[in-house]
Design goal:
Helix content of chain B: under 10%
Shape of chain B: globular
Strand content of chain B: over 45%
Largest interface: A-B, 23 and 22 residues
Shape of chain A: globular
Oligomer: heterodimer
Number of helices of chain A: 0
Number of strands of chain B: 11
Helix content of chain A: under 10%
Distance between the termini of chain A: 36 Å
Largest sheet of chain B: 7 strands, mixed
Strand content of chain A: over 45%
Structural class of chain A: mainly beta
Order of helices and strands of chain A: EEEEEEEEEEE
Number of helices of chain B: 0
Structural class of chain B: mainly beta
Radius of gyration of chain A: 13 Å
Radius of gyration of chain B: 14 Å
Chain lengths: ~110, ~120
């Protein structure tokens, strides 16, 4: 099975900060990775797929990069509405789909 | 705008079957895979399985033979049945639509989720 490990699990940051979240895959998954944002009590929202393709309607301050075993989600300038939990998800082993453990971004 | 809405009982007794329905509106249920995903309280996301409009299904082996997903293209609904439930099946259950083509498995629309508690 493919394992996804996100780091950090918890991140404290301020509005305007540049934030980077890492997702490591074992074994490698080419570019078959998506990122989601989830706010409390809400369903996840797709941010990025194919490792770096921004979903329609998602602000350009979000970006994704990486391939194979290491991926990053970057928020270039953290906004108040960005405080949430972020999950990576792999689809390399489709139809068996798995998610990372999540990274909670909180206000410093 | 595609919308998904889960419905069903919020409380299920141990050893019984959890049954949920997801109603799709604003778009056809055809040409996409549709998934069920769950999230135990305070924890991460777990993919349960998916179905194509023609009834073709895929399941997470973790659920072995306990799970069944079906689709009704006349009512644009998909259903989840999970048998022999225990407290470990307490979770928010989501239905979600997958992108088509090369990136099937990416979820672009989600329902709001429904909390199902397993308790006697």
């Amino acid at each position: 099975d493919i394992q996804l490990t996100q780091s950090p699990s918890f991140l404290s940051a301020s509005v305007g900060d540049r934030v980077t979240i890492t997702c490591r895959a074992s074994p490698g998954i080419a570019s078959y990775l998506a990122w989601y944002q989830q706010k409390p009590g809400k369903a996840p929202n797709l941010l990025i797929y194919a490792a770096s393709t921004l979903q329609s309607g998602v602000p350009s301050r979000f970006s994704g990069s990486g391939s194979a075993t290491e991926f990053t989600l970057t928020i270039s300038s953290l906004q108040p509405e960005d405080f949430a939990t972020y999950y990576c998800q792999q689809l390399n082993s489709y139809p068996l789909l798995t998610f990372g453990g999540g990274t909670k971004v909180e206000i410093q | 705008q595609v919308q998904l809405q889960e419905s069903g009982p919020g409380l299920v007794k141990p050893s019984e079957t959890l049954s949920l329905t997801c109603t799709v509106s604003g778009g056809s249920i055809g040409s996409n895979f549709w998934s069920w995903i769950r999230q135990p309280p305070g924890r991460g996301l777990e993919w349960i399985g998916n179905i194509f409009y023609n009834g073709y299904t895929n399941y997470n082996p973790s659920f072995k033979s306990r799970v069944a997903i079906s689709v009704d293209t006349y009512t644009d609904q998909l259903s989840l049945n999970l048998g022999s439930v225990t407290a470990a099946d307490t979770a928010v259950y989501y239905c979600a639509r997958e992108l088509t083509g090369y990136y099937e498995g990416v979820f672009d629309y989600w329902g709001q989720g429904i909390l199902v508690t397993v308790s006697s």
